[in-house]
Write a structure and sequence with these properties.
This protein is of the alpha/beta class. It is about 30% helix and about 20% strand. It has a 7-stranded mixed β-barrel with strand order 21-22-23-24-27-26-25, surrounded by 4 helices. The longest helix is centred in the N-terminal third of the chain and has 17 residues, at about 70-90. The radius of gyration is 24 Å and the shape is globular. The mean pLDDT is about 95. The structure holds alpha-methylisocitric acid and iron/sulfur cluster (SF4). Iron/sulfur cluster binds near residues 121 and 357.
């Protein structure tokens, strides 16, 4: 039997384990990326490992998230990351150069290679045939040090694309359709591969929009074949030598097949407050819009921006709408300026934002109270925009631009005609904002610049065999890491200060959580299905660790968060019988007995002292994860084994 694209890459990078679905596999990692909101912690962890030089083919540190500098904290973190990068062999993309995923795709992506990044949208580079996976910062630190990256061998889903998108229907509408079909938990434990005749009609940036938002499916990653279109993209970037052809074998086996006819798709929107709450724009109707934002790692390519400029040409943004546009990279920004499209955007009244994540992570541009904001981004979780009662709709650049002019949600296909843009054959290549590290022989001379905001991160200890505590929180389903550890302009500057961050943990779910943990000396969190979906931020594990959380007991977990809990030495448990979720209430006193042998055997007894009930909980860990839990987390495990 033949192999899928992902299986081919896994096979050529397999260091340990067997390629059977669910089994633990260790992969050799060729490239890593970090961004600044997760990077400071990842590099502190890398330093703690004591390895002088990264062992990957290419590691890049980007500054793109924390670029609103309202105090010294962010700038200090940037300096810290810059100095660590210089010393330890990491390329450094300076603030202003753009969003990590967009730049990585343009300048460093290579079909057939492996990439892990401390950001959940790392699968963007799957658009060119890389196996690109989002991970916790500690996993990235280990990979930089030459260690394997472990995942459970995913199942393979094939999405067959036929036909061709109609004018004004966009790659974003394709992934919104996939989200509608599969839901935010439909991709858990799977790699989503795209294939079929329809693939040829999609450019690499369009493919990258689709793989980027595969993160919202909960998928391990998404990937497209590396075909002639991929070769052309690399050639346009002056990197044709980085091309390798990569297709699935004709007789490759897929566990699931989904067919999508591109020609039937309509412009769509994900309605508040979940990326899978998808309807067609025409079905939702012409709701009044207060804000439109175009950009983010999902939709900020030159193609996206040129389409927007074409729609805005000669028009003025509606008086009741604020339109913000953030090109994804300096390359995109430069080329927009050179071809005159930037002038069109400015003339329309758009507020041009710097090339960065910006409003996508709540760094500015929060909507008005109860405002409706259309965004070309990938997440619309409640409160993420910085305005708790705002309603965020995720749409394509075409829908965003058409609605910015009309002031109401507008189906762009009603504009009629063709949407003609011309993308140059050669991109403008200027890597002057990417600094190379110093040679190893000069590393000693580089001083690490540590600002006062950088505090030591919490160290975990092995769990006691009898672990007691209260249920300090009980949540519902689909809790995101934005709920656990919110982002936004006010809190993000403290990503390297866990004690300060801890005050905001679960703030929007239960404002007393942090205080309660302090009073009770920590305890247990009880949750529903898909607990920890969304961002890869390991702070959503490190902060609970700091607050004394010993175990999280839920109906099911999202992949990256579960790995982050294990890395932090917090026990991830699931109910053997989901109905038992109802038998635990807030503040109940719980006891886990036989923890150590239970970790080895896969099941632990949970006793609810308050109600007297015994509950079976499952410890679903690979052998390596069991050893990690027994050692007290990844850093202790790595120290023990090196
Ligand atoms: C996000 O989109 O939520 C982020 C900010 O990019 C995160 C990483 C973070 O929290 O720093 C992600 O997606 O992993
Ligand atoms: Fe940045 Fe938003 Fe992309 Fe996250 S999803 S990397 S915050 S642009």
């Amino acid at each position: 039997m033949g192999y899928t694209i992902a299986e081919k890459i896994i096979k050529s990078h397999l260091v340990s384990g067997e390629m059977t679905p669910g089994a633990d596999i260790g992969l050799k990692i060729d490239q890593t990326l970090t961004q600044d909101a997760t990077g400071t912690m990842a590099y502190l962890e890398f330093e703690a490992m004591g390895i002088p030089r990264v062992k990957t083919e290419r590691s890049v540190a980007y500054i793109d998230h924390n670029t609103l500098q309202t105090g010294f904290e962010n700038a200090d973190d940037h300096r810290f990351i810059q100095s660590v990068a210089k010393k330890h062999g990491i390329y450094f993309s300076r603030p202003g150069n753009g969003i990590c995923h967009q730049i990585h795709l343009e300048r460093f992506s290579k079909p057939g290679k492996t990439l892990i990044g401390s950001d959940s949208h790392t699968p963007t580079c799957g658009g060119i045939g890389m196996l690109a996976i989002g991970a916790g910062g500690m996993d990235v630190a280990v990979a930089m040090g030459g260690g394997e990256y472990h995942i459970n061998m995913p199942k393979m889903t094939r999405i067959n694309l036929t036909g061709k998108l109609r004018p004004y229907v966009s790659a974003k509408d394709v992934i919104l359709e996939v989200l509608r079909i599969m839901s935010v938990k439909g991709g858990v434990g799977k790699i989503i591969e795209y294939g079929g005749e329809g693939v040829k009609s999609l450019t690499v940036p369009e493919r990258a929009t689709i793989t980027n938002m595969g993160a919202e499916l909960g998928a391990t990653t998404s990937i497209f074949p590396a075909d002639e279109v991929a070769r052309e993209f690399l050639k346009a970037q002056g990197r044709e030598e980085d091309f390798t052809e990569l297709y699935a074998d004709d007789d490759a086996h897929y566990d699931e097949i989904i067919n999508i006819d591109l020609s039937l798709l309509k412009p769509a929107a994900a309605m508040p407050h979940s990326p899978d709450n998808v309807k067609s724009v025409s079905e939702i109707g012409p709701i009044k819009v207060d804000q439109v934002l175009i950009g983010s790692c999902t939709n900020s390519s030159l193609t996206d921006m040129l389409k927007v400029a074409e729609i805005l040409k000669g028009k003025t943004v509606h008086p009741d709408v604020s339109l913000g546009i953030a090109p994804g990279s300096k390359q995109v920004f430069n080329m927009l300026a050179d071809c005159g499209a930037l002038s069109v955007l400015i003339a329309s009244g758009a507020r041009i934002l710097e090339c960065a994540c910006g409003p996508c992570i709540g760094m500015g541009q929060s909507p008005n109270s109860g405002g409706i904001s259309l965004r070309t981004f990938n997440r619309n979780f409640e409160g993420r925009s910085g305005t708790q009662d705002a309603g965020i709709y995720l749409v394509s650049p075409e829908t965003a631009a058409a609605s910015a002019i009309s002031g109401v949600l507008t189906d762009p296909t009603t504009l009629g005609g063709e949407l003609k843009i011309s993308v140059p054959e050669k991109f403008t290549v200027n890597d002057n904002m990417i600094d190379a590290p110093v040679p190893e022989s000069e590393a000693d001379k580089v001083e690490i610049l540590r600002g006062p905001n950088i505090k030591p991160f919490p160290q975990s200890k092995p769990l006691d065999d009898v672990t007691e505590g209260r249920a300090v929180l009980k949540t519902g389903d689909n809790i995101t890491t934005d709920h656990i550890m919110p982002a936004g302009a006010k809190i993000l500057p403290y990503r390297s200060n866990i004690p300060y961050l801890s005050k905001f943990c679960f703030g929007s779910v239960d404002p007393d959580f942090s205080e309660r943990c302090k009073e009770c000396g920590g305890g247990f969190i009880i949750g529903g299905v898909n607990y920890g979906q969304g961002s890869s931020r390991e702070h959503a594990a490190l902060v609970p660790l700091y607050l004394g959380i010993k175990a999280v007991i839920v109906k099911s977990f999202a992949r990256i968060h579960k790995a982050n809990l294990i890395n932090a030495g917090i026990l991830p448990l699931t109910f053997a019988n989901e109905a038992d979720y109802d038998s635990i209430s807030l503040n109940d006193e719980l006891v886990l007995s036989n923890v150590k042998s239970g970790i080895k055997d896969g099941s632990i007894k949970l006793h609810n002292k308050t109600t007297g009930k015994d509950i079976d909980v499952v410890v679903d860990l690979t052998d390596r994860q069991k050893d990690m839990m027994l050692a007290g987390g990844l850093l202790n495990y790595t120290k023990k084994n090196s």
